[in-house]
Amino acid sequence: MSRHALSALFAPDSFTAFVISKAEVEDIAMIDLYALTSPNVQKIYIMLEETKLPYKEHFVDVWKGEQYNPDFIKINPNSKIPVIVDHEGPGGKPYTVFESGAILIYLAEKTGKFIPKDTVKKYDVLQWLMFQLTGVGPMFGQFTYFKLFGPKDNSNSMPRYQTEVKRLYEVMEKRLARSPYLGGDEYSIADIATFPWTRNHDMQGVKWEDNPNLARWFKSIDERPAVKAALAKVGAIKSNRDTASEDQRDRFFNRGRYARA
Q1: What is the pLDDT of residues 75-133, one digit of tens each?
Q2: Residue 164, Cα to own-chain centre: how many angstroms?
């Protein structure tokens, strides 16, 4: 996307959350990050801090429904965060990437960091990245919904998701008994993807004192300067989560009048 096109997209009559001034258009960061505070977003903050790529934050308050604004849907037709726009993408042209796993792979390959070049080691990392994307993220997310936001009568749901959350932690504990990091000997995008989802392990019913390998792994990542910097930025973000109306919550969770069932 050219600078002229950016000026048009973020013109004064566009959605205010995404407005960029003319002065800012002349000095665009390499990466635009569309974000808020979820674990999936935290992954990308960590990756950007680790790789030291210059980026600019654009907050999309999903608790207000801003992800459904037409201007944002132009960036991600799936109306989800995170999204990045790399203004120095393939061939020197702007390139948009959505879905957190795709963003991690893209940034790893762009920078040559946190993904091995050796084919076997690379696929060791990618397997554990997929483990997070298809297991940890969905199951931990459903557990959180039913524990914090779901109906009070969820006696069928909670045992199902609590059991699966603990099973997934058991898989990681066993893996980390044999390997310093999830993807192998080196810290990688598999760890970056998984770490944010384990930050609420106590709420998820898992104690580090019962999982020494997870505890060691978590501490080694939590102490990284880039991780500290990323989480500090996330911690400073304000959202409508705690003050969202019931209708806003229903829209966020696709329930009530927003349900398609």
Answers
A1: 999 999 999 999 999 999 999 999 999 999 999 999 999 999 999 999 999 999 999 99
A2: 21
Report the pLDDT value the prediction gives residue 33, as an integer from 0 to 100: 98
pTM for the predicted model, two decimal places? 0.89
Question: Would you report the helix, strand and coil content of the chain in percent, each value rounded to 5?
Answer: 60, 10, 35
Tokens matching residue 162: 């609590």
Q: What is the DSSP string of 97-142?
A: EESHHHHHHHHHHHHT-SS-SSHHHHHHHHHHHHHIIIIIHHHHHH
Contact 85/28 with Cβ under 8 angstroms? no
Is pLDDT of 236 > 70? Answer: yes
- Domains belonging to the chain, first-starting first, are 3-113+240-258 (3.40.30.10), 119-223 (1.20.1050.10)
